[in-house]
Amino acid sequence: MKRRSLVINTIIDIAILTLSFFIMIWIKPASKRVYLPTYLYPFLVFLSVWVIISLITQKYSAPERYKLSRALWHIILTNIVITGIATILVFAFKANLNSRIVVLGTISLGTFFELFFAICDYFICNAKNSPDTSVVFEVYQKVVGRYQEIPIAEPLPEEIY
């Protein structure tokens, strides 16, 4: 299966972050009347910073360039850098009236959704690329300083179901 393009991954990331923002706004009381108009412009600035830093650090292509564990760490570290830059911008523009649950909750929930999406993407793409039609996960066991592949049980025949 061919990997999605950078544009599609960027659109998915924008949708993930926007969904996280709306969930955090929805948690707060008086969300439609007060918080949504107040936080819309700062959110758009934050969203553009998020996408620019993600493109610079090549976060969207991490699952195809690295092993899964390294790709997840790459996503987490990129999001920590984005959080730091957003915090610097909040203090630089004296916008410290923003709700911490909306700002940090959006970042945390967005990171969780990104990690979940990256894991699903990794396993779906690897399952499609495997010669076998069933999903095969490689399981390794440490044996005397080296790793040995453990065979996975074959599925039951159709007539048993």
Question: How would you describe what is shown here?
Answer:
Helix content is 66%, strand content 5%. The chain has 5 helices and 2 strands. It is globular, with a radius of gyration of 20 Å.
Spatial ordering of strands, largest sheet: 1-2
- Give the topology string: H per helix, E per strand: HHHHHEE
Major sheet characteristics: 2 strands, antiparallel
Number of helices: 5
β-strand amount: under 5%
Helix content: 55-70%
Q: Which class do the helix and strand fractions yield? A: mainly alpha
The radius of gyration computed from the alpha-carbon positions, rounded to a whole number of angstroms, is 20 Å
Compile the SSE list and pairings.
Layout: H1 6-27, H2 31-56, H3 62-65, H4 68-92, H5 100-129, E1 140-143, E2 146-149
Antiparallel strand pairs: 1-2
Structure at a glance:
With 161 residues, the chain is mainly alpha-helical. It is 66% helix and 5% strand. The relative contact order is 0.13.
Question: What are the salient characteristics of this protein?
Answer:
5 helices, mainly alpha, 161 residues, two-stranded antiparallel sheet, globular
